[in-house]
Specification:
With 215 residues, the protein is of the alpha+beta class. It has 8 helices and 8 strands; from the N terminus they run αβαββββααααβαββα. The longest helix is centred in the middle third of the chain and has 19 residues. The radius of gyration is 20 Å and the shape is globular.
């Protein structure tokens, strides 16, 4: 139970505002929700190919001695434009990290793709097709509650869902601007790939967050 507390306190330190609640939905739930609503339409801004996408369950396959372990991977391709995705396809879209296109192989690109899919899922969840379908709503509620980790009560979740629905045309999402961060030499951080603030503190990020909230 300490993970949410740590995550909230860390985000508070970075953005400079209180984080009252948090929620975690695992990838399997994310995939199932997309399938329950019948898939989602995602606007792919930049097409890309990832020839090293891991195949689940083959992480330890020796591939008959192949030094490149190619049997552990598959090639996935996404073309620019609108694509209707089921849960499995959407999961590959947001998880890809080995694109030949350098612009799509970064953590920032993955973050933007995650937001695209979440936006598409939100739009589908808020559609009349789903909102006016009690059976679908029941499935969504049961699936979400079965795998959701949160410090919100069920009553608070219901109230929040209603408020999100009422304000559905005004919900925005943003990604932290890359220019506010730097990627230092991994040797400075035990060979981990990390981002740190361009300045020595989070003041620039906090100013950016406050400017968004003031709009």
């Amino acid at each position: 139970g300490g993970g949410l507390v740590l995550a909230k306190s860390t985000v508070e330190e970075i953005v400079g505002i209180p984080i009252h609640y948090a929620a975690v939905i695992d990838f399997n739930n994310y995939k199932k929700l997309i399938d329950i609503v019948g898939g989602i339409d995602v606007q792919i801004e930049h097409g890309f190919t990832d020839s090293r996408f891991p195949i689940p369950g083959r992480e330890n396959d020796l591939c008959g001695g192949d030094p490149e372990y190619n049997c552990r991977y598959e090639t996935i391709v996404f073309e620019k434009g609108v694509e209707h995705m089921d849960g499995e396809r959407a999961l590959k879209y947001v998880r890809s990290r080995q694109s030949a296109d350098e612009a799509e192989g970064t953590d920032f690109a993955r973050s933007l793709r995650q937001q695209q899919v979440l936006h598409a899922l939100k739009e589908k969840l808020m559609s009349k097709e789903i909102v006016l379908n009690p059976s679908k709503l029941k499935q969504i509620w049961e699936e979400t509650m079965a795998s959701l980790e949160t410090d919100l009560s069920e009553r608070e979740i219901a109230i929040l869902a209603r408020r999100v629905y009422d304000a559905r045309a005004e919900v925005e999402s943003h990604t932290l601007p890359e220019e506010l961060l730097i990627n230092p030499d991994p040797r400075e951080f035990q060979n981990l790939y990390v981002f740190v603030p361009r300045k020595k503190d989070w003041s620039e990020v906090q100013s950016w967050v406050k400017s968004l909230l003031a709009q």
